[in-house]
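User: Design a sequence. Structure:
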């Protein structure tokens, strides 16, 4: 055993309770250069998530278990997690094989982007608060929906919960992503309602029409890709970058989506911080920008009729 490993073993052997391990993890995280942004934004919340989920304890039972003592195998497991989080900048979601979106837990691993989307917020709240109600008055009348660039399939699961009578397709170019999406579809028992399709955007959807198409496509521009924190560099780069301006995938969606929408269908797309560049590229389109928790410049909505007018970028 090396001196460093021996020292770590001594330190970890002095940490007995959940409280001890949370305190230790917070201290280690604060002294490190790790980046938050995959579910938490601070050392304490990250530590609680890592320790509680690492021990398979419900998050809302923290106070019940603060003084519970850990057995050696549990201590070794948590020590390895903390080490990987700091030394390799591995996102906690990958260490735990879980991510949370709108209160729902999803399986994730290094094959897919860790889910984070304002569209999830809109699906959970938009129909009741009014952000989507001008276009979707009766959710039960939506019969078909698609999620382009689905990744882990989490938005497809949310679509199924919001539109219970709809047949849902979740689409991704990556077979790895399709495999993970199928895990989440099965975990929620949605195999009869949600179908995962391997396709480069719309290429394998010939003849299909949808009432609703959503997409949270890659949208990070080239300059930003070069400066991403290590945590984001540990995610599939295919799911992040989208050309020089971050709009390559969005151009494809705007060019083709109308062909796959029913006459009264709508398109909802998340584009990150690219609103100004998008509007400059499509001066003939009046985008409907939807209000989310961070403002009204991240997600747009277009009807099929709007898409058919001036969809060619400058």
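Assistant: Done.
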């Amino acid at each position: 055993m090396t001196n460093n490993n021996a020292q770590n073993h001594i330190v970890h052997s002095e940490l007995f309770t959940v409280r001890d391990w949370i305190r230790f993890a917070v201290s280690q995280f604060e002294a490190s250069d790790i980046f938050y942004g995959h579910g938490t934004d601070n050392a304490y919340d990250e530590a609680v998530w890592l320790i509680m989920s690492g021990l398979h304890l419900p998050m809302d039972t923290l106070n019940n278990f603060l003084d519970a003592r850990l057995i050696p195998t549990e201590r070794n497991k948590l020590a390895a997690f903390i080490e990987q989080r700091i030394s390799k900048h591995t996102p906690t979601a990958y260490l735990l094989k879980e991510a949370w979106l709108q209160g729902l837990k999803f399986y994730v691993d290094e094959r897919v982007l860790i889910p984070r989307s304002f569209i999830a917020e809109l699906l959970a709240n938009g129909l009741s608060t009014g952000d989507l109600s001008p276009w979707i008055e009766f959710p039960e009348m939506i019969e078909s929906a698609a999620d382009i660039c689905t990744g882990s399939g989490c938005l497809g699961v949310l679509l199924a919960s919001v539109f219970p009578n709809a047949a849902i397709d979740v689409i991704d170019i990556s077979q790895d992503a399709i495999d993970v999406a199928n895990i989440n579809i099965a975990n929620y028992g949605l195999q009869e309602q949600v179908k995962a399709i391997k396709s480069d955007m719309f290429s394998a959807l010939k003849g299909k029409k949808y009432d609703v198409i959503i997409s949270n496509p890659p949208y990070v521009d080239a300059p930003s890709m070069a400066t991403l924190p290590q945590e984001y560099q540990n995610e599939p780069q295919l799911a992040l970058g989208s050309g020089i301006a971050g709009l390559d995938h969005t151009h494809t969606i705007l060019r083709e989506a109308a062909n796959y929408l029913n006459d009264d269908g709508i398109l909802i797309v998340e584009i990150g911080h690219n609103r100004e560049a998008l509007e400059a590229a499509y001066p003939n389109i009046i985008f409907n920008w939807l209000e989310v928790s961070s403002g009204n410049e991240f997600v747009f909505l277009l009807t099929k009729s709007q898409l058919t007018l001036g969809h060619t970028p400058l």
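The chain has a mean pLDDT of 91. The two ends are 64 Å apart (CA to CA).
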